[in-house]
Write a structure and sequence with these properties.
Elements lengths: L1 E5 L7 H12 L5 E5 L7 H5 L2 E15 L9 H5 L5 E4 L2 E4 L9 H5 L5 E16 L2 E8 L7 H9 L6 E5 L6 H7 L4 E6 L3 H16 L4 E8 L5 H9 L3 E6 L2 H8 L4 H4 L1 H16 L14 H6 L3
């Protein structure tokens, strides 16, 4: 089973949910944890992994031999990302726009384009509290996070329970983390901003055909509009985490809830039990009977 913990905005508590879920289940399940927030990974603060491997992730950039190039413009015409342009007698390559697909090299009639590797970042892997852990680290200044997420997911153990901590937002990196998951746990907060961005995250998950469950973090600081939205859309609220000073203090020290508050270990174990009891079909306005356990457990 692959569970992606995501949200429409940053700071909602994705990492809190993902890391505590992994720690609560690791004693009884073969867990594998992937921190896909490659621009700013922080799961390691709570899981404290021992890193044993480091792998470079590269993309191939075109290099034009100006002596062979005829300035025909085939490469620029073929590039969907406008990463290469022919201006007068010059061929310009915009590295940040290039996706490394190799099409420009393929369409060049005189073989004037070769490819050189360019490092986007690294994947670090090891063990955290007895289970496999990996995270990506995008190099400073790089704009393309998705290849690192794909590389992280390439190392998925098909026999394990996979927990992916997704990047915030609803862009390509988030889509890459959610795609192929069995369930998207969307973490939100009961505020106007939380509701606005939850709507966007729901749209992404639904467009990918991934069932959804919602977790409300910092419950009690806002109003009930998130709950009313979920009820209208037929989306189960599977857990609420209260706005609590003690929880905030533990978080600020990098301490996981399940390590210091036994009741939260039981809540995350129960959450997983609800999720496996029947995944939501998540069709607007409809709810299959098999998904009733999720709805009945919402908010408890």
């Amino acid at each position: 089973m692959k569970i992606t913990v995501a949200s429409g905005k940053g700071g909602t508590g994705k990492t809190t949910v993902a890391t505590n879920l992994a720690l609560a289940l690791a004693d009884d399940h073969p867990v594998q944890f992937l921190d896909c927030d490659v621009e700013e990974p922080n799961a390691h603060i709570f899981l404290k992994p021992q890193i044993g491997q480091r792998k470079s992730v590269e993309k191939l950039l075109p290099k034009v031999d100006e002596h062979l190039c005829t300035r025909c413009g085939n490469c620029a015409e073929a590039c969907e990302f406008n990463a290469i342009a022919v201006i007068g007698k010059k061929v310009l390559v915009y590295n940040d726009l290039c996706h490394g697909c190799g099409l420009c090299k393929l369409v060049c009639p005189v073989g004037a384009i070769s490819e050189i590797p360019h490092e986007l970042g690294v994947i670090e892997s090891g063990t955290a509290r007895g289970f496999p852990f990996s995270h990506g680290l995008l190099n400073i200044g790089e704009a393309m996070a998705t290849p690192l997420i794909h590389e992280l997911k390439a190392g998925i153990d098909p026999e394990a329970l996979i927990i992916l901590d997704a990047p915030p937002g609803t862009g390509c990196p988030t889509i890459a983390a959610i795609q192929g998951a069995d369930l998207a746990l969307l973490v939100t907060e009961p505020t106007p901003f939380g509701l606005h961005d939850l709507r966007a995250a729901v749209g992404v998950a639904r467009s990918l055909g991934v069932p959804i469950g919602v977790i409300i973090n910092r419950d009690g600081i806002g109003d009930d509009r998130v709950e009313r939205y979920c009820e209208e859309e037929g989306i189960p609220i599977v857990l609420k985490i209260p706005f609590d000073r003690e929880i905030a203090q533990f978080y600020s020290r990098g301490v996981s809830l399940v390590d210091v508050l036994p009741e939260w270990r039981e809540r995350f174990i129960s959450l997983y039990g609800m999720l496996t009891a029947g995944l939501v079909s998540d069709i607007p306005g409809e709810r299959r009977a098999q998904n009733a356990p999720l709805q009945e457990g919402g908010g408890k």
